[in-house]
Amino acid sequence: MTTNFVEELRWRGMIQDIMPGTEELLNKQMTAGYIGFDPTADSLGIGNLVPVMLLLHFQKAGHKPIALVGGATGMVGDPSGKSAERNLLDETTLNHNVACQKKQLEKFLDFDCGAQSAEIVNNYDWFKGFSFLEFIRDVGKHISVNYMMAKDSVKSRLENGMSFTEFSYQLVQGYDFYYLWKNKNIQLQMGGSDQWGNIVTGTELIRRKAGGEAFALTTPLIKKADGTKFGKTESGNIWLDKAKTSPYKFYQFWLNASDEDVKSFIRIFTLFTKAEIETLEVEHAAAPHLRVLQKALAKDITIRVHSEADYTAAVEASEILFGKGTAESLQKLSEEDFLSIFEGVEQYEIVKSDLETGIDVVEFVTEKTKIFPSKGEARKMIQGGGVSVNKTKVESVELKINSEHLINNKYILVQKGKKNYYVIKVS
């Protein structure tokens, strides 16, 4: 085995609870372990990267990782960490989501390395033919109501009410563990700390129903230093699917991590060694304004989730905003990235026909757009080299703005001074 899995998680700050005997088992033999993924979206979000990294480290340590995609449990709803009943999905939607998540998981785990090959299983496969009467006879009788009521995920919901569907969720998840233990020799279930109660129900079911032994391990739930929820921004979730979150926005999320958060993020979300991280921390401490840790984190994770080309494009896009970009790099941007970069800047709109004969630059930044309050002020700033169009400095007040200046055939970018940007939409 290349590493001690539990030791690796310890220094990375990735262990919350661990059942006695788990570390001994993992140090003794190759073990199969699994984590469940919620299929209620057709993409994993960055919150899912914690369990994905768990499975990655698990495989690197010489073990066999299994990702369970909950095609059946997605129809039920998990009450853990929720304050209200979750909307249940139909089978067609679930199947689509499961297929999309499978593709993403295949980017992280090795599915072709012999005995340690990763696998993806779907609990719908063993629940679809399981009748309700069989379930309460073969599973329900082994776990008491008192045991189920004692779970935090249940107690926290009793005041506002909880359906039988969600109350029974822990039995369904517990049976997953029993089924995989019996049929695939899976001895370990992992997950976030909010899943501890459900996971332990599985180990208890294995013990009571079959006299067997199984183990559990959970990671802490990630919280940001400022108290906001990890993985969320004002515009919503950060997804792994580039159609939902562009590589630029994905890169920016990590680049903008606070100095306090980045110290834990770089341990959890990268494969850097302890020595490499400590070296980066020393560099960062010497010049915090250079954001060495944030740049190393953002680069590593953007390349692994997307690609080297997407990372390079994201860096070029970032430099456009901070003054280092070129006209050429601006023209290469997709419309989505262009709008992401300049989200929130002041916008003006002109009609395309105005550009056919060209507009004098002074008129363009005064009468057409109101970027400058007067022509005199505009001329003075242009002559002083303080105005750029599409990242190219305006050299003369004689410049004509025409359709050749269009970005994505519909935008023109004007910069006044170093920091003031304006987007002109041409319709």
Please describe the structure with a list of short key phrases separated by commas or semicolons:
single chain, 427 residues, alpha/beta, Rossmann fold, Tyrosyl-Transfer RNA Synthetase, Structural Genomics Hypothetical 15.5 Kd Protein In mrcA-pckA Intergenic Region, Chain A, 3 domains, six-stranded mixed sheet, five-stranded mixed sheet, 20 helices
* Rg: 27 Å
Low-confidence stretches: 81-86
Compute the separation of the termini in Å.
Answer: 61 Å
Quaternary status of these chains? single chain
CATH class of the largest domain: Alpha Beta
Beta content? 5-15%
Overall pLDDT: 89
- CATH architecture assignment name of the largest domain: 3-Layer(aba) Sandwich
Task: Give the number of helices.
Answer: 20
Major pleated sheet: 6 strands, mixed
CATH fold naming of the largest domain: Rossmann fold
The tally of beta strands, per DSSP, is 15
Strand line-up in the sheet with most strands: 1-6-5-2-3-4
Q: What spatial form do the alpha-carbon principal axes imply?
A: elongated
Query: Which secondary-structure class do the elements indicate?
Result: alpha/beta
Number of domains: 3
Q: Tell me the CATH superfamily of the largest domain.
A: HUPs
Estimated helix fraction: 40-55%
